[in-house]
Design goal:
By secondary structure, the protein is of the alpha/beta class. The chain has ten helices and 13 strands. The chain has helices at 35-45, 66-73, 87-103, 120-141, 161-169, 217-230, 248-251, 319-356, 386-395, 425-444; strands at 113-117, 152-156, 173-177, 199-205, 237-240, 264-270, 282-286, 298-302, 305-309, 360-365, 371-376, 402-404, 413-418. A seven-stranded mixed beta sheet has the order 1-7-6-5-4-2-3, sandwiched between helices. Strands 10-11-13-12 form a four-stranded antiparallel beta sheet. Helix 8 (319-356) crosses helix 10 (425-444). The longest helix has 38 residues, at 319-356. It starts with 34 loop residues before the first helix and ends in an 18-residue tail after the last helix.
Length: 462
């Protein structure tokens, strides 16, 4: 039972009554707690989670400038959905959509549309729904019995789980193009074998979550173009650019993956990944309003104004949207490019350090996206597994995941580093040293290692 004595506000935190009690878990404490004591107790509860800066498992941004944190803290109370009440906030959101349309080479002759979301998962849901509704409308016009078969979505088996959720939620058949050693991204040799008149669209992934590999979206576009020229049912492409769509335009602007390709009709990204904003913001754009069926855009009369809304979520803080605009203003194109180029350089250094051990086969060296991914060589003369290496690195504070690849390659265990904008050269050097030391410790240790056949996932896989 907590208690509060407002007259004892100067009592040391760890001399207080509350500091001697367990935190409540199932029932609220009856009385209030002094704010400085509550702050310290909650902070202490989180103390063993380690430093987010050393978390190489997550794609999500773990650093923003103090000025960005300040403007976001000062606008947390603004509700992003109240566009008539906060018109300048709505204008900043619209500005971000415009800037992304420019980055993704939207054609001025078309009428692009877009919105912020809570993250890429919501954005993917919106992109998927738009494809389903558009397919359904076209199928009816073409006289297709839409109830004869379940509509389907074609995607690499290296998809992020939000696509599986989408297909379950909206009753879509998920058709997975299998990954293999020779095809760690979507297999363009066979992808069209999975397409039929009930296909709502194909998802191209610009940064597969498992490995960081890019789908060959330009080749995919050409295949879809040929298909559409000989079939009544038009197939379209949605690009899941959760990671790559806010990285590639700055680092490899000549790569054709975006709205330059005529069959790419929508793109999503995570502002909280390589958009460099703290978790809580994503974006989706359609190349033209033709690809966002009208029934998915709602005109809401709310708080004295009318506003169109196409997002799934309703009330949420506008602070992440404002943080995104701050970054666009603060860094500009050149600033983003400088940050991302240095991040890629750090990934290449880590990849080189991994390769120089002679123990690992590199799947992704960080050149396309700053993600380093590898497996132990089949002939590596070691007793330990990647799970052991992950454990050893965690002893030094680094969170590094080891996990199996999807289904067809489920026996292949890989390890992945996600290099983010806040991974400075000093941290790259520190990690390389810790990696080398960890391998030496494992080679010289007299301990029981993980069974190589044990199914274990260490850390995050997305």
């Amino acid at each position: 039972m907590f208690r509060t004595n407002v007259e004892q506000s100067n009592v040391p935190v760890f001399g207080s009554f509350e500091a001697g009690q367990d935190l409540p878990e199932k029932r609220m404490n009856k009385e209030s707690v002094d704010p400085r004591i509550a702050y310290q107790l909650v902070k202490d509860q989180l103390i063993d989670e380690g430093s987010a800066r050393q978390n190489l498992a997550t794609f999500c941004q773990t650093y923003m400038e103090p000025e960005a944190e300040q403007i976001m803290a000062e606008t947390m109370e603004k509700n992003a959905i109240d566009k008539s009440e906060y018109p300048q906030t709505a204008k900043l959101e619209s500005n971000c959509v415009n800037m992304l349309a420019d980055l993704w080479n939207a054609d001025d002759s078309e009428h692009y549309m877009g919105t912020s979301t809570v993250g890429s998962s919501e954005a993917c849901m919106l992109g998927g729904m738009a494809m389903k509704f558009r397919w359904r409308n076209a199928a009816r016009e073409n006289g297709l019995d839409i109830n004869a078969k379940k509509p389907n979505l074609v995607i690499s088996s290296g998809y992020q789980v939000c696509w599986e959720k989408f297909c379950v939620y909206w009753d879509i058949e998920l058709r997975e193009v299998p990954m293999s050693e020779d095809h760690l991204s979507i297999n363009t040799d066979i992808v069209m074998d999975y397409v039929d008149e009930y296909t709502i669209g194909i998802v191209g992934i610009l940064g597969i979550t498992y490995t960081g590999k890019f789908d060959d979206i330009k080749t995919l576009n050409d295949l879809v173009e040929d298909y559409n020229n000989t079939h009544d049912n038009e197939v379209v492409i949605h690009v899941d650019g959760a990671s790559g769509a806010m990285f590639t335009p700055f680092v490899d602007p000549d790569l054709e993956w975006d709205f330059r390709l005529p069959n790419v009709v929508s793109i999503n990204t995570s502002g909280h990944k390589y958009g460099l904003v703290y978790p809580g913001v994503g974006w989706i754009l359609w190349r033209d309003k033709e690809y966002l069926p009208e029934e998915l855009v709602f005109d809401v009369s709310y708080l004295g104004g009318h506003m169109p809304t196409m997002a799934i979520n309703f009330s949420r803080s506008a602070s992440q949207i404002i943080g995104q605009y701050y970054n666009f203003l603060r860094f500009g194109y050149d600033g983003y490019r400088q940050i991302h180029m240095r991040t890629r350089d750090g990934a290449l250094q880590l990849s080189q350090a991994v390769a120089e051990t002679g123990l690992f086969e590199i799947y992704n060296d960080g050149d396309n996206l700053p993600i380093v991914c590898y497996k132990l060589k089949d002939d590596a003369d070691v007793a330990w597994t990647l799970y052991d290496l992950a454990d050893r690195l965690q002893m030094k504070g680094w969170q590094v995941p080891a996990y199996p690849l999807p289904k067809e390659m489920g026996n292949t265990i890989i390890q992945r580093y996600v290099c983010r904008g806040d991974l400075g050269q000093n941290m790259v050097t520190a990690f390389k040293n810790d990696l080398s030391e960890s391998i030496k410790e494992l080679n010289n240790a007299h301990i029981l290692y993980h069974d190589v056949n044990t199914s274990k996932t260490h850390g995050f896989t997305h």
